[in-house]
Amino acid sequence: MKEPRQEIEDAIRIYYKELGFRRDNSRLSHQTQARMALSNVMREHGMKYEEIKAYVKRDHSTIIYHCKHHESEMKTWMGYRKTYETCLAIVGAALTGDLSETIEFLQAKQDKIQKQIDQYLKKKEENDSRIKELAEDSAEIG
Predict the structure, then answer these.
(1) Could you tell me the CA-to-CA distances from 23 to 12, 19, 59, 93, 132 in Å, in that order?
(2) 53: CB partners within 8 A, 6+ apart
(3) How far apart are CA 32 and CA 76, in angstroms?
(4) Per-residue pLDDT tens over the stretch 39-80
(5) C-alpha distances in Å from residue 115, one per residue of 17, 18, 28, 110, 129
(6) Taking CA 20 as the corner, what is the angle to CA 2 and CA 49, rounded to the nearest 5 degrees?
(7) 97: which DSSP letter?
(8) 3-state SS of the chain: helix, strand, coil percent to 5?
(9) Quick one: average pLDDT of 85-108?
(10) Residue 15 to residue 30: CA distance in whole angstroms
(11) Entry pTM
(12) What distance in Å separates the CA atoms of residue 113 and residue 66, rounded to the nearest whole number?
C-alpha cells in the first residue's frame, strides 16, 4: 500500500502531465497557475500552509498569497479556472481518496478524444472516396 504522501506526489505528477508540461520553479504564467491551483486545492482539503509548501516547493507566504488571490484570479486570469478544475479533479481526488471526480474527468476527456477520432475517420473516408473518384475520372480521360 502506498503512503499518503506518495499518492499525492503521484497525483501531482499526473496533474502536470495532464497540463502538458514539466513541473519547474520558473515564474512562467502556466507554472504559476499550476502552483496556485495546487495550493488552493490542498488548502480546500484541509492542509496547512506548512504542509502545502512541501508539495508546491514555495515558502508559506507564497502559499498564503495564492490562497488569498484565488477567487479574483478565477475571474480574471485566462486559463486559471481550467487549470484549477484539472487540479481539483486529479489532486483533489487523491486527497479525499474519492476517485469519482477523476473518473468523470477522464471519461469526459475520453469522450472528447473519441469525437475527434470519429471526425478524423469521417474526413478520411470522405477524402478516400474523393481520391477514388478522381482516379476513376483520370482513368477515363487517359
Answers:
(1) 9, 10, 17, 20, 48
(2) 59, 60, 62, 63
(3) 15
(4) 999 999 999 999 999 999 999 899 999 999 999 999 999 999
(5) 22, 19, 32, 9, 21
(6) 55
(7) T
(8) 80, 0, 20
(9) 80
(10) 13
(11) 0.70
(12) 32
